[in-house]
Amino acid sequence: RERTFVMVKPDGVQRGLIGEVVGRLEDRGLKMVGGKFMQIDQDLAEDHYGEHEGKPFFEGLVDFITSGPVFAMVWEGQDAIRQVRRMMGETDPAESAPGTIRGDFGLDLGRNVIHGSDHEDEGSNEREIGLFFDEDELVDWEQADETWLYE
Ligand code: GTP
Ligand code: MG
Hints:
By secondary structure, the protein is an alpha+beta fold. The protein has 8 helices and 4 strands, in the order E-H-H-E-H-H-E-H-H-E-H-H. The chain has helices at residues 10-14, 18-28, 42-48, 58-65, 80-88, 101-105, 124-132, 146-149; strands spanning 2-8, 31-38, 70-77, 114-116. The chain has a 4-stranded antiparallel β-sheet with strand order 2-3-1-4, with helices on both faces. Bound molecules: guanosine-5'-triphosphate and magnesium ion. Guanosine-5'-triphosphate (GTP) is lined by residues 52, 57, 61, 91, 109-110, 112, 115-116, 118.
């Protein structure tokens, strides 16, 4: 089983979409093993989005992600990194299929509701989980329906 870092961004929090996002991931069968309602500071934002430093949208991205509270989470499941990305849709909500989170709840590239670790960026899940969570903030637990979710 694989772990991935997921976050409801400030726009999603302000729009009351935490429950919607959590519900979709739960319905899919994924298991939450960590969750934290928090405010991201400048340093954490620059670390988290370090790969985009120097790009024209970097400053706006850091301003946005620090502009209000977020809900940071760790989710576990089979192929979790890639499956969450598929549920999120494309980076640009305008290009995201209806049925995906960004395709159902967003219109604008800079306000795309959710973050999930990138399956094309090897190790980004571990890096992001480590940035946001201490080891003792993650909970190992057995999901009651696990035997019905997996062969
Ligand atoms: P995250 O889950 O936020 O990392 O999104 P992503 O992995 O789908 O996209 P990426 O990591 O490439 O970009 C990070 C964020 O920067 C995106 O979610 C967008 O909000 C923003 N972004 C990416 N590309 C552009 C761009 O060309 N212009 C602007 N204004 N914002 C961008
Ligand atoms: Mg990304």
